[in-house]
Design brief:
There is one protein chain. It is built from 13 helices and twelve strands. It is of the alpha+beta class and 320 residues long. Helix 1 packs across helix 3, helix 2 crosses helix 3 and helix 4 runs antiparallel to helix 5.
């Protein structure tokens, strides 16, 4: 049996038989007595209060005040864990191997009926996984550990697709997965403010000896969303946008994060938005071009002119 299985077996033996010696445990598990000592130590480290008493009536036991619930999962809980693991792998979860071992352990300790039920539901839902990226996975594991240890990291970071490489020292507050990309949110010691950084643009990473204190109740997820959705709170500075098109196109447009937060009102074939100028003329045109002739911009005319210029420059680029 694996170490975890042996630890669980000792736990159940001590709960059922009240008191056992290391020799009795070794004979029952068919392992060397030194292995029992190591397993007991591991249980103590994990938080189980195993007490050792010497003498003729001595041995190991667990105090009566220590109670625990057996780790039993209902069928629907098992199914949800397997499905969640599939989605985690799709996101490029950096602890995929450990996740697979956990799912394998879940199956190993399931009854034949449970296993059959689990496998039928597992094959009924599939997620297309991205190509494996071992360097990025290692980097994400480093960042996750630094976040847990509250230690600052030094990184070489590429600003933009062809931007220069800069050395930054940050206090990493959290990792966020957004639209198939991983971001680390933290305090940048160069800019002296909280920033978001694309993990795939970090060229190298090293942990420092500096320990930081994470702000209380800070949400990396909310900070990232707020930085992406940079709409002004002053209604006077927002630009009115009217777009019409097929009902499916309008549905998709209103459901997208870029336009969804700016929606004022909509009908089946048209929608009214209010957006800040920077977003409207830098991000919106490129997204709207993906709809082709399924939508039509009614206003503002400047947005239409912007899309004409972008389209013309693309045509010139690919014809050259």
């Amino acid at each position: 049996m694996s170490k975890a299985d042996n630890m669980l077996a000792i736990l159940w033996l001590l709960r059922s038989r009240k008191r056992m010696t290391a020799k009795q445990l070794a004979e029952h598990l068919e392992v060397h007595i030194r292995t029992v000592y190591r397993l007991i130590d591991a249980l103590c480290v994990s938080g189980v209060p195993v007490v050792s008493e010497t003498g003729r009536s001595g041995g190991y036991y667990i105090p009566d005040h220590f109670t625990f619930d057996p780790l039993f999962f209902e069928l629907v809980e098992q199914k949800s864990l397997v499905h969640a693991a599939a989605f985690a792998r799709e996101a490029g979860y950096p602890f995929g191997e450990a996740l697979q071992r956990a799912i394998a352990k879940l199956k190993r300790h399931s009854s034949p009926e449970q296993l059959n039920h689990l496998e039928r539901h597992e094959t009924g839902l599939e997620v297309i996984h991205p190509p494996s990226n071992p360097p990025l996975e290692r980097l994400l594991r480093q960042l996750e550990q630094s976040i847990a240890d509250t230690r600052s990291v030094r990184m070489n970071y590429q600003t933009g697709y062809e931007g220069p490489t800069e050395t930054r020292t940050i206090d990493p507050y959290g990792l966020v997965h957004w639209k198939s990309k991983w971001y680390v949110v933290g305090y940048c010691r160069l800019r002296r403010e909280i920033r978001c950084f694309r993990a795939d643009r970090i060229l190298s990473l090293s942990e420092t000896d500096t320990v930081f204190q994470r702000p209380a109740d800070f949400s990396a997820r909310q900070f990232l969303l707020n930085s992406l959705l940079t709409a002004s709170e002053d209604e006077r500075h927002l630009i009115t946008v009217h777009i019409e098109g097929s009902s499916q196109a309008i549905n998709d447009l209103c459901g997208h994060w870029l336009f969804g937060h700016a929606l004022v009102e909509r009908a089946a074939d048209r929608a009214h938005f209010k957006m800040d100028e920077l977003t409207l003329y830098t991000q919106a045109p490129y997204f709207l071009l993906s709809y082709g002739g399924k939508i039509r911009i009614l206003s503002p005319s400047e947005l239409k002119s912007c899309m004409v210029e972008i389209t013309a420059s693309l045509l010139e680029y690919y014809q050259s």
